[in-house]
Design goal:
Structural class of chain A: mainly alpha
Oligomer: heterodimer
Number of helices of chain B: 19
Shape of chain B: elongated
Helix content of chain B: 55-70%
Strand order of the largest sheet of chain B: 1-2
Number of strands of chain A: 2
Radius of gyration of chain A: 26 Å
Chain lengths: 401, 441
């Protein structure tokens, strides 16, 4: 049943895109134009080349730079089957060049995506707002259909991340709009770079012909280099924090991978409670580092309370300037009842998830589970957090607790 | 440039005056509106120079010059370079006047020569923009611009540093290939400007602005990352009394030695992080062993032997550090295979491992530890030399010696307070470390 619902969520927008693309294509056959076979071949080669270079923004899903090339073909007025074929063939060529079998799901996405973009461009062309330049010596006049350009840009910057949210983010339906907005916020720079490149290609193709692709992609690649650097540095940062979570485990007083497991569980609970994206990131970092205090209290762990540990951990984390809120969450997790309002929810999530992980696999039986929940309510004192945690555990009892 | 030799002054003066003359002549031959926009464009591009990496800054000034060339010919390209005056004046170091005069002048001269080449080729090949002839002409002009530009700069470098002209000329090559993307950008911009509308330039500027924004953010995250790694190291040193400051010192000296050996920038960066983190595994070694005054017994030494493996395990999931993990894992191995914990030989030890191993031992010897006092720099170097070839890489040891001569080194004698030592006095000790001579750091 759940699988069917997921299929419907993923499939409906695709079917809609196919349908709209077809309808507008039929309604506005005059808007489609023929591209020279040589140029189509160049476009396929460009799609294959750019397929290998997706663009990542920190925290966001990669935006394929090949979208810029496919959208250019759509803006040049090619019919949906042509655009779909350029995207699909380019993708297959890229996979084969890497000696990988094409992934059927990804291929369907490219074909339907291309078809939809062509339909979107055709729909925009119905508005009939042209931007024309001056004639070259050869008589060619560069032009762009502004309606088509605007709709294609919106489809790339807003439509693509929204669709990815629909298909990939777990959690409750009521948070979907916010998740979609966050997904757009996390990839809009890459999206804008791709969209403006597509518009650029659509304009200059009339003048530059075969030279369009090598020139139009240069600014995009510059943006890609910058964004990749940015994303790499951010990822190194996250991974280093995860590695720090292993430090207390080396002392033998914490179960291996405890920090990583608590982090995973805490993020699921945070998603369930609809925490905003920034806070989720800090929640995950704090969960990874919540036992760090143990390395400072090495010799006198005996009498140490949860609060002492949390304070010691927070003081270590505070020494890194940009992790202030993480330190605050860790400190507050030592005293879930008295936690300051701003960080109460993440602090209680961590305290609860830490307890659940300490219970270990024993908590699988119903009686044990009930006992654990009662204790959680007593220790954490936040019914909403415990209820969300309970729902997460129900959904995936194999959270390897 | 602290003292300005007369020859240098004459040269920069000539370049500055030549540039000024060219700009004046050019100004008579272009329309005021075109000149205004071209000058503003250069002013902006020089104001937004983006630091890409060490010793590499990206600016779009040469794109603006090429677009001016395509749009209004050599005269406009030369006049455009006047826009660099204000940005240069704002960031030039002393002696300001001659630096600014030279920089603006060399841009104008480069633009003028590239412009003459472009116009000559265009006449020779016929046709007009954007046909094949004009694309060839602009490509050759771009390479000319870059060569003249770098040529003039290298004359100044030769005059200042007395570096042989040959090695300066050799460094000119790579810049030529870098002109290809700039030519593409210039052609694209010129098409938009000439056939579409100046407003369409926004479509090009947006990705460039995103690239700049992302690179600036990258620098910010990279700095934060640096602080994080240092906090990581500090977290370990909370536990380990005798290595306080050790990781920082090993990192600093390792990078200096890597520079001395001509290790490329990316690997030097990696060297820094690997050296900072080389002892993280000590967190898994019992406190009483680490801070024990006096020699270790076999059991205790077995504990110590584990720290490179534990360290590599802690860092295993940091993709960026993947090439550095072997450095952490092998920093107690020896060329002759008698090191620990794996006992692998020199064939498996990269240059960076060899650097960190030698520097680690050097800092260990020149700092006071719980089991002995610090040794002098001379003694430590003599000991490294004695073990070169068997324990340490001879080339690395020599590079380390040269580096120490250059930057100086003060042994670290301020050890933790006596209360932390629980009343034990630190013995004078010998150069031979705790259990066997090859054990260090």
């Amino acid at each position: 049943m759940r699988r069917l619902a997921e299929l419907a969520v993923a499939g409906l927008p695709l079917a809609l895109g196919l349908l709209l693309g077809t309808l507008w294509w039929i309604a506005e056959p005059a808007a489609t134009s023929d591209l020279a076979p040589l140029h189509l071949l160049l476009f396929v080669v460009a799609v294959a080349g750019t397929e290998l270079l997706p663009m990542r923004q920190p925290g966001g899903r990669p935006v394929p730079t090949s979208t810029a090339v496919i959208a250019t073909v759509a803006l040049l007025g090619a019919a949906p089957p042509i655009v779909a074929a350029v995207g699909g063939v380019g993708y297959v060529v890229a996979r084969l060049a890497r000696r990988q079998a094409p992934d059927p799901g990804a291929l369907v996405l490219r074909v339907v995506g291309g078809w939809t973009l062509a339909g979107v461009a055709a729909a925009g062309a119905l508005l009939d707002v042209q931007w024309t330049g001056t004639a070259t010596q050869g008589g060619a006049v560069p032009a762009l259909d502004l309606g088509a350009g605007a709709l294609v840009a919106v489809a790339i910057v807003v439509g693509m991340p929204t669709y990815q949210t629909l298909t990939r983010t777990p959690g409750r339906l009521e948070f979907l709009p916010r998740r979609a907005a966050e997904a757009i916020a996390r990839s809009w720079l890459a999206g804008v770079a791709v969209a403006s490149t597509a518009l650029l290609g659509g304009i200059v193709h009339e003048v530059l012909g075969g030279w369009t692709l090598p020139t139009m992609l240069i600014p995009l690649f510059a943006a890609r280099i910058g964004l990749e650097h940015f994303a790499d540095a951010t990822r190194a940062y996250d991974q280093t924090i995860r590695a720090m979570s292993r430090l207390p485990e080396q002392l033998g007083t914490v179960e291996p991978e405890h920090g990583v497991r608590v982090g995973r569980l805490a993020v699921s609970v945070g998603l369930e409670l609809g925490l905003e994206a920034d806070l989720l990131v800090d929640l995950e970092h704090a969960a990874h580092l919540h036992e760090l205090g143990r390395i400072r209290m090495d010799h006198d762990l005996e009498g140490a309370t949860r609060r002492d540990l949390a304070d010691a951990g927070a003081s270590i984390v505070r020494e890194t300037a940009s992790l202030d809120r993480v330190a605050e969450i860790i400190a507050a997790s030592g005293d879930p009842y008295g936690a300051p309002r701003s960080v109460a929810v993440p602090a209680r999530i961590i305290a609860a998830c830490c307890d659940v992980d300490d219970y270990g696999a024993d908590a699988s039986g119903d009686a044990r589970r009930q006992e654990m929940m009662v204790r959680l309510v007593r220790d954490v004192g936040d019914l909403e957090v415990v209820a969300a945690l309970s729902r997460v555990l129900d959904r995936a009892p194999a959270v390897e607790v | 440039v602290e003292t300005t030799p007369a020859r240098l002054l004459v040269f920069t003066g000539l370049v500055g005056a030549g540039g000024a003359a060219l700009i004046s002549v050019g100004a008579l031959r272009v329309s005021a509106a075109a000149a205004f926009f071209a000058i503003i464009a250069v002013l902006l591009s020089e104001s937004f120079v983006t630091h890409v990496r060490e010793q590499a800054d990206a600016s779009l000034t040469n794109v603006v010059v090429l677009v001016s060339l395509l749009y209004g010919g050599a005269a406009l390209a030369v006049v455009a370079t006047a826009g660099s005056l204000i940005p240069f004046a704002r960031r030039a170091a002393t002696p300001r006047t001659s630096r600014v005069a030279f920089n603006v002048g060399q841009l104008a001269i480069s633009a003028a020569i590239a412009g003459l080449v472009f116009e000559g080729l265009l006449r020779l090949l016929g046709g007009s923009f954007p046909d094949a002839g004009s694309l060839i002409a602009i490509s050759v002009a771009a390479v000319t611009y870059s060569l003249v530009n770098q040529g003039l700069v290298s004359v100044v470098i030769t005059l200042v540093t007395k570096e042989p002209a040959r090695s300066v000329v050799r460094s000119l090559g790579p810049g030529t290939a870098m002109q290809i993307p700039y030519v593409g950008l210039a052609v694209l911009a010129a098409v938009l400007l000439i056939f579409v509308s100046p407003w369409a330039l926004v479509l090009m500027v947006v990705p460039a602005a995103i690239a700049r924004f992302a690179l600036l953010s990258y620098e910010r995250v990279d700095e934060a990352y640096d602080r994080l790694v240092r906090a990581f190291v500090k977290a370990i040193e909370v536990k380990d009394l005798y290595t306080r400051g050790h990781s920082e010192r090993v990192a600093r000296l390792s990078v200096a030695v890597a520079e001395e050996l001509g290790v490329p920038y990316d690997e030097r960066r990696l060297t820094r992080y690997a050296a900072l983190l080389h002892d993280v595994g000590k967190i898994g070694v019992p406190l009483c062993v680490i801070n024990k005054p006096g020699p270790l017994d076999e059991d205790e030494f077995e504990h110590i032997k584990q720290h490179p493996t534990i360290g590599a395990d802690i860092l295993r999931d940091i993709d960026f550090l993947a090439p550095a993990i072997d450095i952490v894992r092998y920093h107690h191995e020896r060329l002759d295979g008698a090191g620990y914990p794996y006992g692998i030989g020199g064939d498996d030890l990269s240059q960076i491992v060899r650097i960190v191993t030698a520097v680690d031992a050097f800092d260990a010897m020149t700092s006071t530890r719980s089991y002995r006092q610090a040794f002098g720099v001379e003694d430590a170097i003599a000991e490294l030399r004695r073990c070169a070839g068997r324990q340490f890489d001879a080339e690395v040891v020599e590079a380390l010696t040269r580096t120490i001569d250059r930057i100086g080194w003060v042994p670290t004698t301020d050890f933790a307070s006596s209360s932390e030592l629980h009343g034990h006095a630190i013995p004078a000790g010998t150069l031979e470390d705790r259990v066997r001579p090859e054990v260090s750091g």
